[in-house]
Write a structure and sequence with these properties.
This protein is mostly helical. The chain has 2 domains: about 10-70, Winged helix-like DNA-binding domain superfamily/Winged helix DNA-binding domain (Arc Repressor Mutant, subunit A), CATH 1.10.10; about 75-215, Four Helix Bundle (Hemerythrin (Met), subunit A) (Up-down Bundle). Helices cover about 70% and strands about 5% of the residues. The protein has 10 helices and 3 strands; from the N terminus they run H-E-H-H-E-E-H-H-H-H-H-H-H. It has helices at about 10-20, 35-40, 45-60, 75-105, 105-120, 125-140, 145-165, 170-175, 175-185, 190-210; strands spanning about 30, 60-65, 70. The protein has a 3-stranded antiparallel β-sheet with strand order 1-3-2. A hairpin with a 3-residue loop joins strand 2 (about 60-65) and strand 3. The chain is globular and about 55 Å long. The N and C termini lie far apart (about 40 Å). About 30% of the residues are buried.
Length: about 220
C-alpha cells in the first residue's frame, strides 16, 4: 500500500512504478492495468490513471493501440539521443553545483566513500543506490528546477537500461574510477575538468548499453 504524505497519491504511485521498473520487477513491453496496480498499491484507479499519464510524458511508459499502457522499450537511436542530452545536462549540473560543493564537499565525499565500500564488498545494490544519489546531488545543489525536472524525466526513460547494465558487475564497478575523477576535479575547483569528466562518464554508460543485444531495444 502507498504511504501518504504531502505529495499527491498519483505521484506516490508514479514513484512506485518507476522503482519497480528500475528494479526489474516490471520489464520493457509489459502491459500495465489500472485495476491491478490500484489493488497492489491500495489506491483508486483514477490515481493510477494519473500516474500513467505522468510517466508516459516522462517517457517511462507508452500507450500502444490495442494493448493499452506498457513499459516503454527504447530504440538504439533513442538511447543515443537520451545519453547525449543527459551528458550535457549532467555536466551543466556539475558546473553549477561546483562552487558550493568545493567549499562544502562533505556529502560528495560521503557518497564517494559509500561507492568505494560497495565496490570493495562487491555489493551491487549498495553501489547502485549510492550511484543514484551521487548523480542526484549535483542538480539538487545546482538548485535549478528546470534542470532537475528534465534530468528526472531522462532518468525515468533510462531506468530499465540501467538495470540491465547492472548485470555486468565488472563494468559497473569500473565506472567508480570515473566518479573519482569528477570528485577530484570538484575538490580542485576545476569546473571545466569536472564537467568534461561527467560528460565522459555518461557517454561511457551509453556505450555500455549499446553493447547489449538487439532484443533489448525497440526497432527504430
Amino acid at each position: 500500500m502507498i504511504e501518504r504524505d504531502t505529495l499527491s497519491t498519483a505521484q506516490h504511485v508514479a514513484s512506485a512504478i518507476a522503482q519497480a521498473v528500475r528494479g526489474g520487477h516490471l520489464v520493457p513491453g509489459q502491459r500495465l492495468t489500472e485495476t491491478e496496480l490500484a489493488s497492489r498499491y491500495g489506491v483508486s484507479r483514477s490515481s493510477v490513471r494519473e500516474a500513467f499519464q505522468r510517466l508516459t510524458v516522462d517517457g517511462l511508459l507508452a500507450f500502444e493501440p490495442h494493448r493499452g499502457v506498457t513499459v516503454r522499450r527504447l530504440s538504439r537511436r533513442e538511447v543515443d539521443n537520451l545519453f547525449a542530452v543527459r551528458g550535457a545536462l549532467e555536466a551543466l549540473a556539475v558546473g553549477l553545483a561546483l562552487p558550493v560543493l568545493h567549499v562544502a564537499p562533505a556529502r560528495l565525499l560521503a557518497l564517494q566513500a559509500e561507492m568505494d565500500e560497495a565496490v570493495e564488498a562487491n555489493d551491487m545494490a549498495k553501489f547502485s543506490d549510492a550511484n543514484t544519489r551521487f548523480h542526484g546531488l549535483f542538480p539538487e545543489i545546482a538548485d535549478n528546477a528546470v534542470l532537475t525536472e528534465t534530468l528526472t524525466r531522462l532518468s525515468n526513460s533510462l531506468y530499465w537500461l540501467q538495470f540491465r547494465m547492472l548485470v555486468d558487475r565488472e563494468h559497473v564497478f569500473a565506472s567508480n574510477v570515473e566518479h573519482r575523477r569528477i570528485v577530484e576535479a570538484v575538490l580542485a575547483d576545476d569546473r571545466s575538468t569536472a564537467e568534461a569528466a561527467m560528460r565522459e562518464h555518461v557517454v561511457a554508460s551509453g556505450t555500455l548499453i549499446q553493447k547489449l543485444s538487439d532484443d533489448h531495444f525497440a526497432r527504430a
